[in-house]
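Hi,

Apologies if this is the wrong queue. I'm a grad student, and the batch job for T-cell leukemia translocation-altered gene protein homolog from Solea senegalensis produced an output file that my downstream script rejects. I'm not sure whether the problem is my script or the file. Here is the sequence I used:
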Amino acid sequence: MEETWDFEFLSRIADSCLSFLSEFVDDWLANDMRVSIFKILLSWLIFSLIAIHFAWKVYGNTVNDMYYRQGTGQNGGTPEAAPHLSGWGRKAGDPLKTHRD
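Support response: The file is valid. Your script probably expects a header line. Output copied below for reference.
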């Protein structure tokens, strides 16, 4: 009994996919305005994705290097505090506190 249900379910899915595809092909072959707009938008989307892919291949390392902080420490090469500014509530002789203190 369970096998027939599985077969019936799969056949319904296959029939609905085939009917959708046949309607899609019929609409695709028709010279309708909405089909023309769909074709234009689909080609623009595909062209844009290909252009982004090739631009990332060419300029990806440059962009990555611009935003990647090099150096050691938690924030890359940036200092923990600006040397010309005194910290809040810190006296002149106190050592700098780190997050471990």
